[in-house]
Amino acid sequence: MNRRHFLLSTGAAVGLGAAGLGQRALGQPLRLTIQGARYDLTGNAVTEGMVSLSADAPPPVLRLRQGERFVAEVINTFDDYTTMHWHGMRIPVQMDGVPYLTQVPMGQGDSYVYDFTPPDAGTYWYHPHCNTMAQMALGLTGILIVEEPDDPGFDADIPVNMRDFRLGEDGQFIAFYTPRGAARDGTFGTVHTANWQRDPVEDAPAGGLVRLRLVATDTTRVYRLHLPGAEGRIIAFDGHPLNTPLPWPSAEAPLILGPGQRADIAIRMPATEGTEIAVLNDQPGGLRPVIRLRATGRDLGRDLADLRPLPPNPLPTPDLSDPEVIEFVFGWAPGGPPSNDGYCGSLGYTFWSINRVSWQGDASGAGPLATLERGRTYILRLRNESPNDHPIHLHGMSFLPLASNLRDIPQNWTDTALLLKYETIDVALVADNPGDWAFHCHVIEHQKTGLTGYLRVT
Ligand code: C2O
Ligand code: CU
Ligand code: CU
Asked: Taking a C-beta distance cutoff of 8 angstroms, is the pair 15, 157 a contact?
């Protein structure tokens, strides 16, 4: 197995106790070093000027365990300010990695110890939250898995980090964003990858049960996925096991994942060695395979019915008898000064607003958009007044979509609600985690040009 394949295969995940990144003696934190990197993304040129957690490899899959403490010292050797955010994790606010709101950004040579115990199992991810546009575009988006205490019984577990890179013909970066894109659906990448590979093929046991963890870490793209001919079911969405079953995706009704969203799907591999299953994305220009799985070895003869349901995560139940409703309107900016967030970068203009105000930077802004009383149930009315999609993400707490003005929506816990154009979604939430929690669109060009703020839980 060559190094590239080793690093990309699921066995190479960095977990507590696993080697791979830095040396970790017993009882010492995992050391994660944000650093410059180079990598052959296209198959014909090494892309220079990337950012990762090692000099020549994609950000590793971090494997944590539900209810077990995780301690990581994040060291910044990259020549820019940064922080690390753990997307979807319901953890103490000091560990949330939002510049100015929860920590001071790390300059070159600085470090920060992130120390938390994940309450929920499932599929999450990590990315910087300072100079977010540049550092995510340059590569720093990785998958974080929180394993269930009891093995759910799959024969393989395959994380899929789906994202694009904006590269020119020579394989080098071109502008990460454009004013035209930022004011519309965002600026799309030119090279489509999964796990930093173009058209990857992953081996999986024939007739075996595979847990595929699809993670949309792109700054812009909304994925519309289906798996023709595959036998499977969706088992979790945005980290959490389903409350409402989701239909198996098809060409007509694909699985939609906006930036920041995840889905765990269980697949039974074909019994015949060499047979492939493809995850296809319906994107402008046609259907494109995101990843293919190839059946290998003798038929394991497993059955989807062998799988026990995933245990639910310990989420607080909203009390819908007397909720307070708070409305947020996402739309165009009325025009204002360019966003400026201290050391954390500006795109130089604003286009977007929350409640008709353009907010600054990576999240901190001026003051909280709303103050919630700890322990109370709220309905957040998320109103999209624009003809563009917005994946609206809240840090620190999960919420439950209740209803949409446009469609039937499944009531599955999430941290990121994809609002389609002109859509309003009511979501319920128990404000159980004290602190200031970033609340923003996950199309990073929207976030960085006004569509960001925070909620305070006191
Ligand atoms: Cu995935 Cu505020 O972030
Ligand atoms: Cu987040
Ligand atoms: Cu948006």
From this structure: no
Ligand 1 centroid vs 148 CA: distance in angstroms?
23
Phi, psi of 137, rounded to the nearest 5 degrees: -60, -35
Q: Find, among 449, 455, 446, the residue nearest to 427 by Cα.
A: 455
- For the question of whether the overall pTM of this predicted structure is more than 0.90, the answer is yes
Average pLDDT over residues 236-242: 98
Rounded to whole angstroms, the Cα distance separating 135 from 140 reads 6
The yes-or-no verdict on residue 24 having pLDDT over 90 is no
Task: Give the pLDDT score at 336.
Answer: 65
Q: Which domain holds residue 281?
A: 156-306
DSSP secondary structure string, 283-299? ETTEEEEEEEEEEESS-
The total number of structural domains in the chain stands at: 3
Are 41 and 95 contained in the same domain? yes
CB of 448 sitting under 6 A from ligand 1? no
pLDDT higher than 60, residue 10: no
Q: Which atom of ligand 1 is closest in space to residue 125's alpha carbon?
A: 1
Q: Which ligand neighbours the alpha carbon of 441 most closely?
A: 3
Quote the pLDDT of residue 359.
80
Question: What is the pLDDT at residue 345?
Answer: 87
Distance CA 41, CA 198 (A): 7
Q: Are residues 354 and 434 in the same domain?
A: yes
